[in-house]
Specification:
It is a single chain. The chain is of the alpha/beta class. The chain contains 14 helices and 19 strands. α9 links the parallel β9 and β10. α8 runs parallel beside α9 and α11 packs parallel to α14. The protein starts with a helix and ends with a helix. The N terminus is likely disordered.
């Protein structure tokens, strides 16, 4: 089948259906967006219109989503292509039970003396595991927290640890779809009718409090004291609508966890390398200490799905209990190392901080201020921003996304935090604007202009 056969001709429906629409599982439960992608270059995606008078029209779209936040180098990176090609030919494929030169090179680059992450995670205090995805990484993080209570040989509680059965989560949080993570999500839509964690002595309970509310956190720790096993937090809440806490919140949360004897688990799957720093668990005083940190998405450079779980050395799991098919395979390590070296050499993380300031201003001035009927607020940090929809616009989010794509910009929509406790306002569906690290100042200007054009198009539909 040729590209012409698939794309069709202007003014006509495609001559053949796109076969993935016939057999791919629909995860979204709504009408699918009427576009196909025929390729990409940098942050430009090549799209084709499926329906209407313009069926068959080919057009370019700027990617303001970064492939669900994972394609930090965009498409067609020569650095990644070279690393993949060389690793396929020479690196091998041993699992983690056999030492690997590629794995050694990567981990020394990150955690050895002078390594990229060594100031935050020195090798004498931390060790690392690889997983296939961010969700798998968070599953392992939760397992490490749960098994910190147990004698791994006898599978019984360590004296004094048996009463730790509470995990603190946050309203609107998102840590992945998998069954073991469902207790960390407080949204009924995702939990009802699915497996629950077994009752004590081998289970746990999750309490959820509003993210960013220090008084709520202090009151919760005052009530629960030594029962707290772990705190699981995103330093910037993603699916909740790109909620950025006030300065000092994360450091005080870490202090509360430490004083209670609880483990602090940082979910940096989304935030890794996107906030102007490699790690969002950072403030003006420097790194905020964590017991377990999970990174992913950008770690795979848009070429692989992978994650890392970085945990204190004293934390472990029962033997063979968490063996993974892909625990930092040599090819994965080669891609990560090449990508991170490129990011460092080009200062892409530092540049994202400056570009993020520009992006934030543009979103506030040219999108939110110009379309108050559609948008309530813009917020974010680095190249991770969100534009919250009004209630009326949230009801038309599907139409809005289609308008954005037809006007040349690809964005995603996050669920929002919804209804929160303690009198905090409802957070509606939020448009995530998170272009790849390779975006330029001109790209950011164009993205904002096209978001405005797409917003105007939605208004015209309602006229």
């Amino acid at each position: 089948m040729s590209a012409t056969d698939v794309i069709g001709l202007p003014g006509r429906e495609p001559t053949r259906p796109w076969f993935d629409r016939e057999v791919q599982f629909d995860h979204y439960g709504a009408q699918r967006v009427p576009f196909g992608c025929t390729g990409a270059d940098g942050i430009v995606q090549h799209f084709v219109e499926f329906t209407g008078d313009d069926a068959g029209r080919a057009f370019d779209v700027l990617d303001a989503s970064g492939g669900y936040g994972s394609a930090c180098l965009g498409a067609g990176s020569e650095v990644i292509a070279t690393a993949l090609s060389a690793a396929v030919r020479t690196a091998g494929y041993v699992t983690d039970e056999i030492a690997s030169s590629e794995r050694s090179l990567l981990l020394e680059r990150l955690f050895g003396t002078g390594g990229l992450f060594a100031d935050r995670f020195p090798a004498e205090h931390y060790r690392v595991s690889g997983r296939n995805s961010g969700s798998e990484g968070m599953e392992l993080a939760l397992r490490l927290a749960l098994e910190s209570r147990f004698d791994h040989r006898r599978l019984r509680a360590v004296p004094g640890a048996g009463q730790r059965d509470l995990v603190l989560g946050f309203e609107g949080a998102w840590h992945g779809w998998s069954g073991g993570l469902l207790p960390l999500i407080n949204r009924r839509h995702y939990r009802i009718g699915l497996p629950a964690v077994a009752p004590e002595p081998f289970g746990f309970r999750t309490d959820h409090i509003p993210f960013g509310d220090l008084d709520a956190a202090r009151e919760w720790f005052d009530r629960n004291g030594e029962r707290v096993l772990a705190v699981v937090v995103e330093p910037v809440q993603g699916d909740a609508g790109i909620l950025v806490p006030e300065h000092g919140y994360l450091r005080e949360l870490a202090a509360l966890a430490k004083r209670s004897g609880a483990l602090l688990v940082a979910d940096e799957v989304l935030t890794f390398a996107k906030t102007g720093r490699f790690f969002a668990m950072t403030d003006a005083a420097g790194p905020i200490p964590t017991d377990i940190t999970v990174i992913g998405k950008s770690l795979g450079m848009g070429a692989l799905s992978t994650s890392m779980v970085i945990a204190r050395r004293e934390l472990g799991v029962r033997p063979t209990g968490t063996v993974s098919t892909s625990d930092l395979r040599p090819l994965t390590c080669a891609v990560i190392r090449a990508g991170l070296d490129h990011i460092v050499a080009e200062q892409l993380v530092e540049r994202s901080g400056r570009l993020g300031d520009q992006l934030g201003r543009l979103l506030r001035d040219r999108v939110v201020a110009e379309f108050p009927d559609l948008y309530r607020e813009a917020r974010g940090v680095g190249l991770l921003h969100g534009v919250e929809l009004t209630e009326a616009a949230a009801a038309r989010a599907g139409e809005l996304r289609t308008c954005m794509i037809r006007n040349g910009v690809y964005v995603e929509f996050m669920s929002g935090a919804g209804r929160r406790s303690r009198g905090l306002r409802y957070v509606h569906t939020t448009m995530r604007v998170a272009p790849p690290l390779v975006a330029t100042a001109d790209d950011v200007e164009t993205i904002a202009a096209r978001l405005a054009a797409g917003s105007h198009a939605l208004r015209k539909l309602a006229a």
